[in-house]
């Protein structure tokens, strides 16, 4: 078997994907992780993984026992997650990492130069997202809390309600509402926040400077920077 064939084979049985700045990580059905840059992000010893989150230059994995593992650049200590326990979710930002605990509280490590790690008082959180210098938490009641840089109003989410999913990009935040519409705030240089007309959306994801949405019928919508065809998803079908 050639090296190319071996590499292709390793990317079978993928259950979830997460994209970093220059790499892609894949969670396999057997709880192991593959990476497009295995020399930098060596996950060969990882097992029992149930979720992965890629930051700009580091990768975090959530294990089935509620602990976490991390690999990559550790500037500011953003990979220092070995002491965490009772986790149900992890999110890797550009400069920091956050973890959601079973009791609805949030833990964090990494740089706090923009107050992105000021999450110690959060409660009743059911989902988390981490961007460049911001952290956002979705509460049980469908409202949001935010911490970090206020530049471009990236964490101006206090008035949002009926949110079921949240995602953060470099400097913008996107929320999916119960009625299938989408709200966004933050840096909008490329129109990545121009999502108010979207309908029948079941999932959203914020990239660096673009946003994509999955419709109930399995088609996709996108807004934002398309310089490298990152928004060229309108022809996709049967996505689930």
Feature tags:
3-stranded antiparallel sheet, mainly beta, globular, 18 strands, Methylamine Dehydrogenase, Chain H, single chain, 240 residues
Explain how this protein is built.
This protein has 240 residues and is mainly beta. It has two domains: 1-124 and 138-149, Regulator of chromosome condensation 1/beta-lactamase-inhibitor protein II (Methylamine Dehydrogenase, Chain H); 162-240. It has one helix and 18 strands. The protein has one helix at residues 3-10, and strands at 14-19, 24-28, 33-35, 49-54, 58-63, 68-72, 87-92, 96-101, 106-110, 125-130, 134-139, 144-148, 163-168, 172-177, 182-186, 201-206, 210-215, 220-224. A three-stranded antiparallel sheet has the order 1-2-3, with no helix packed on it. The protein is globular.
Question: Can you give me a brief rundown of this structure?
Answer:
With 240 residues, this protein is mainly β. It has 1 helix and 18 strands.
């Amino acid at each position: 078997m050639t090296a190319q064939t071996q590499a292709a084979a390793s990317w079978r049985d993928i259950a979830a994907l997460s994209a970093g700045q220059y790499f892609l990580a894949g969670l396999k059905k057997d709880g192991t992780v593959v990476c497009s840059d295995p020399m930098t992000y060596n996950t060969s010893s990882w097992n029992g993984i149930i979720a992965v989150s890629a930051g700009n230059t580091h990768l975090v994995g959530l294990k089935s026992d509620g602990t976490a593992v991390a690999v990559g650049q550790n500037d500011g200590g953003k990979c220092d997650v070995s002491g965490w326990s009772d986790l149900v979710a992890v999110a890797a930002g550009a400069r920091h990492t956050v973890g959601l605990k079973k009791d609805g509280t949030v833990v964090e490590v990494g740089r706090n130069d923009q107050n992105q790690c000021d999450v110690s008082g959060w409660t009743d959180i059911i989902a988390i997202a981490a961007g460049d210098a911001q952290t956002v938490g979705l509460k049980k009641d469908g409202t949001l809390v935010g911490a970090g840089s206020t530049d471009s109003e990236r964490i101006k989410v206090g008035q949002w309600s009926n949110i079921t999913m949240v995602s953060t990009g470099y400097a913008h935040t996107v929320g999916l509402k119960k009625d299938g519409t989408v709200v966004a705030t933050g840096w909008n240089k490329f129109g990545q926040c121009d999502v108010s007309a979207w309908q029948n959306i079941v999932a959203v994801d914020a990239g660096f400077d673009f946003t994509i949405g999955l419709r109930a019928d399995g088609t996709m919508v996108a807004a934002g920077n398309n310089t490298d065809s990152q928004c060229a998803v309108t022809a996709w079908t049967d996505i689930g």
